[in-house]
Design a protein that fits this description.
By secondary structure, this protein is mostly helical. It contains nine helices and no strands. It has helices at 15-41, 45-91, 93-106, 111-122, 125-136, 146-166, 168-171, 175-200, 205-230. The protein starts with 14 loop residues before the first helix and ends with a helix.
């Protein structure tokens, strides 16, 4: 008999972490590609910084609004389905009870036990509806403040990520030097970001690091060579 204590370790992705990953991923990649493209077209750090900052502001607002609308849609959808379930338990109680029986039947409960549980559950309409929301529709009650917080998380992470590839254009006068340092710093940031992102979710951190850096490098490299060719 195994007497050792077993501790299960499962990762539960938080909404905040998901927001940060979305914002930081795009924040590192899009301004990096823009700065690279501009570096291949113009030799003026002021222009690159101006365009880069404008993109970061616009991108953070767009990404934040996207997060807000997604969160708002989730809340609105949940509330609409909740109202529908309450209405159906009043209008069609027997049909709703049958749906509960079907759920328990999938778990192997006998018809007798199904009937006992269903009748007990139906005595409390709030719990009855909550059960239907969770097990029939697969919906969890969302945080009412989720939309606003999501917008702030994604927008803030985008700004932080976007400032990394642009930072070198403040410290060096020559665009070529600024670009080379931007590539080095941003690739390191992408490697670190990809490593910890995959480590947190329980996937291979090494492959995640290189995959994330490769995507960023491909975007920036393409933008740079296209801008150089057009220029």
């Amino acid at each position: 008999m195994d007497t050792h204590l077993h501790h299960e370790q499962h990762f539960k992705s938080s909404d905040t972490l998901r927001d940060i990953v979305i914002g930081m991923s795009d924040g590192l990649t899009v301004p990096f590609a823009l700065a690279a493209g501009l570096s291949g077209a113009v030799a003026n750090n002021k222009i690159i910084l101006t365009a880069g900052i404008a993109e970061i502001i616009a991108g953070s607002i767009a990404m934040g609004l996207g997060g807000y609308l997604a969160g708002k849609t989730e809340v609105d959808h949940y509330n609409a389905e909740l109202k529908r379930e309450y209405d159906e338990t009043y209008l069609y109680p027997e049909r709703e009870k049958e749906e509960v029986r079907e759920v328990f039947a999938e778990y192997g409960l006998s018809a007798e036990h199904q009937q006992i549980v269903v009748e007990a559950l139906a005595k409390d309409r709030d719990k009855w509806v909550d059960f239907m929301m969770r097990f029939e529709l697969g919906l969890e009650k969302p945080d009412p403040d989720r939309a606003r917080q999501s917008a702030l998380n994604i927008g803030g992470a985008y700004i932080v990520g976007g400032m990394i590839p642009l930072s070198t254009y403040w410290f060096f006068d020559e665009t070529t030097v600024s670009f080379r340092w931007s590539v080095a710093i941003t690739l390191v940031a992408l490697l670190i970001f990809g490593y910890f992102k995959n480590k947190i979710i329980g996937q291979n951190p090494i492959s995640g690091a290189f995959r994330t850096a490769l995507i960023g490098a491909a975007a920036a490299g393409t933008a740079y060579f296209v801008a150089t060719w057009l220029g």
